Structure formats: C-alpha cells, structure tokens
Amino acid sequence: MNRVGFHATHETQSTKMIFLDSVDCRQSTELTSHYSYSFKDAIETARDEAMLVSLSSASIPYSFYNIRTGINDLLHYKKGGQAQAPLPITPGNYSATALSAEVVAQFGALSPPVALVMKYDKTTLKFKFSSAQGLTFVFDEERSIKDEIGFSGTTLISQNALTPTPSGHAADLNGSVHAIYVRTNLATKSVMESQTGGVSDILAKIDINTDPGGVITLDPNQVSHESLIHTASIKHVEIRITDERNRLLDLNGLHSQLALRFRFVDTKVSPALTEIDPRQRVNPKDVPQLKQRQQAKPPKKKKV
C-alpha cells in the first residue's frame, strides 16, 4: 500500500482561516462544548493537492468544574462494615480546604449524622481522615471521587483522631481534567492516542493556563502540529471540547471561540512499505537480535 505525503515547503494557494464562535453554531447537544456549523461555501482542493489543518488560536472559558456531575461526584463508604448509599458531592470548583468542608458537611447532613475529621496537609499534598464511627471508604465504583482525595482502593478510616488515616497518594484536585482536547470531524490520520491505541480525532491539546473563572487561551505561536486532511472539500465542521478521556466538558452555558488554519500543499506518493529495504525499518522485537549482530562484528584493526 502506498503512502501519501506532501511538500511542506511549497504552498499551492493562499492559506485560509475559519473562525468559529459556538454562539453562532447549531448546537449538537445541550452543552456548548459540542457544536457544528455548515458554511455556504466550501474549502476545496485541486487535483494532487491536499490540505493541512491546525488549531491556530482558541479562547475557552474555564467555567467547567473539577467535581463534575456523573464523573466524580460520589464517595462510596461503609459504616460498621455495612455498605451505605453513596455520599453525593455537590459539583463545583473546589480547593483542598473547600473540598474538605464539603465532604464533612455532607456526612454531617446524614440522618443520623456521621462525624468525620478531614484535613489537608500541604506538605505531603494528602488528606488525613479520622472518624469514631467505623467508616470504610470504597473507591472501585463508578463516579468515585478517589483521585481528588488521593485513594486507589478500599481503605479503613482510623477511629483515633491522633493517628488519622492519610490518603494513599497525593490528592489530585484536577484529576478529571488535566488538559483540554479539541476534537473535530475532519478526516485525518496524523494523530494517535493511547486511550484508543489508534487514530484519533484530536486536533489539538490545550494546556490549562489560567485559574477557574478565567479564559484558557491558545496563542498561534504555540501551534506546532498540522494534520493532513484526507478529503477534497470541507463545508461542515463539527467541534467537540473534551477532557483527556474524551468526555465532553460542561462550560455551564458559556461559549468558546476557535480559529482553524488551512494550508494547501502538493501531495506526493511514497513507495509502498513492501518496496522499502527492510533493513531501514526496525521492529521492536528485533532490537535484541540487532544488538547481538552489532556486537558480533569484529573490531577494526588499528593502523600501525
């Protein structure tokens, strides 16, 4: 099978830009992080020509939460060895102190109330727990808040306030969203991701560079990757703004702005893989054998 490449240094026509504001687009879901738009005119390529697409810039409001409905809003526990209804955590953007207060308040609101001491240690980045009422936290259930409070498995909570139970690892308050991923319907084969183990619809990854309530931005100077589009015409664009696990972000009604950049280049066909000298390709399983062959070579004679 032949592979299609391109001449990156030669542009066949002028660059084109698409500026998208989610407020103008037909909503695909109830969330403003998933939308689509159909243009009156299409962006088209000529014969033996292809398009390179990149996310040129972005402005996305940091209005999504670190405790999210349906994602990580439950704390499962046992009391006296008996499983209880999971404790709901109100969705929102929490600091370590605020999350401690929320969990303690939710236990105190039970009938009868459950007394829990939960404190955050800034030195170890861990929470510490104690309760005289024989609590066991369970973290192998769906929608568990385990990463945010630093646990990975079932844990018995200390009944002695002088020797509280620390979380197993550092608390990751932003465990459900470490970065923003912009995904599109554009047919590319230039991106792969570890979650699926194959080709991905990710156009760009955006680092979170502001605090909650601000605007996350991507500057054109930060863009380094372009994806080759395997289509001759673009008239409809669909955008999905997700976390790293391909879950839509809830921007809570706010809107984002994106700029897509299209460059036009000549295509070229590379030789089929079967026609390439196999010695130019290294399979990981062959690496030990290659090392042995290299070691087996006789040493070069030194000139006298």
Give a written overview of the molecule:
This protein has 304 residues and is mainly β. It folds into two domains: 3-64 and 177-270, Jelly Rolls; 74-166, no CATH class. It has three helices and 20 strands. It has helices at residues 96-108, 146-149, 287-296; strands at residues 3-21, 26-27, 34-44, 49-61, 74-79, 82-83, 87-88, 117-121, 126-130, 135-138, 155-156, 165-166, 179-184, 192-193, 198-199, 202-207, 215-218, 227-229, 233-242, 257-270. Strands 1, 4, 17, 18 and 20 form a five-stranded antiparallel sheet that branches. The longest helix has 13 residues, at 96-108. It is elongated. The model is unreliable at 290-294 (pLDDT under 50).
Please render the helix and strand layout as text:
Layout (H helix, E strand, L loop, with lengths): L2 E19 L4 E2 L6 E11 L4 E13 L12 E6 L2 E2 L3 E2 L7 H13 L8 E5 L4 E5 L4 E4 L7 H4 L5 E2 L8 E2 L12 E6 L7 E2 L4 E2 L2 E6 L7 E4 L8 E3 L3 E10 L14 E14 L16 H10 L8
Antiparallel strand pairs: 1-20, 2-3, 3-19, 4-17, 4-18, 4-20, 5-6, 5-7, 5-10, 8-9, 9-12, 10-11, 13-16, 13-19, 14-15
- How does the helix and strand content classify structurally? mainly beta
The portion of residues assigned to helices is: under 10%
As a percent range, the share of strand residues is: 35-45%
Cα-atom Rg, whole angstroms?
Answer: 27 Å
Summed up, the domain count is 2
Tally of strands: 20
CATH architecture of the largest domain: Sandwich
The geometry reads as: elongated
Mean pLDDT: 87
Oligomer: single chain
**Poorly predicted segments:** 290-294
Distance between the termini: 52 Å
H/E topology pattern? EEEEEEEHEEEHEEEEEEEEEEH
- CATH-defined fold name of the largest domain: Jelly Rolls
What is the count of helical runs? 3
| Major β-sheet profile | 5 strands, antiparallel
| Level-1 CATH class name of the largest domain | Mainly Beta
